[in-house]
Design a protein that fits this description.
Elements: H1 2-31, H2 37-132
Length: 146
């Protein structure tokens, strides 16, 4: 009985080894361009790692784009309020420019009136000096006009 057990164990061991060798050769043939299945696994792991790192970098870029998009959407939301504010300020600026132009016109008119009055005052002060020194006699003060 001991021999039978040894034979069964031997045959089982040979069957397991034979199955391992055949399976390994079959897998190596399927791997094709790689010499062994281990090389194929190493290459697949390297490709997986590179794809994973590319995915992570793309994910980070997508997060940046999402943040920028959110900020742009906030700006678009405030765009109408900004445009209304700009329009209101433009109207105020136009009214201020109009008021400035009117004030400039009044100032120019006032300056010309002032020059005329200064000329009249100069004339009347000279006449008054001549009259005070006796050079001319003033007959009727209402006759002297511009």
């Amino acid at each position: 009985m001991d021999t039978n057990i040894l034979v069964v164990i031997g045959i089982s061991s040979v069957a397991v080894l034979l199955t391992y060798v055949l399976t390994k050769k079959s897998a190596d043939k399927k791997a094709g361009k790689y010499k062994t299945l281990d090389e194929a696994l190493i290459k697949a792991n390297d490709e997986y790692d590179s794809v994973k790192s590319s995915f992570e970098s793309a994910k980070r870029e997508l997060e940046k784009v999402n943040i920028e998009t959110y900020e742009l959407q906030k700006l678009v939301g405030t765009e109408e309020a900004l445009q209304n504010s700009i329009a209101g300020h433009e109207k105020k600026l136009d009214s201020i420019n109009k008021l400035l132009a009117e004030t400039n016109e009044k100032l120019e008119s006032g300056e010309s009136n002032l020059e005329e009055l200064m000329g009249d005052i100069d004339l009347y002060s000279r006449l008054d000096e001549y009259i005070a020194h006796g050079h001319y006699a003033l007959t009727n003060p209402h006759i002297i006009s511009r």
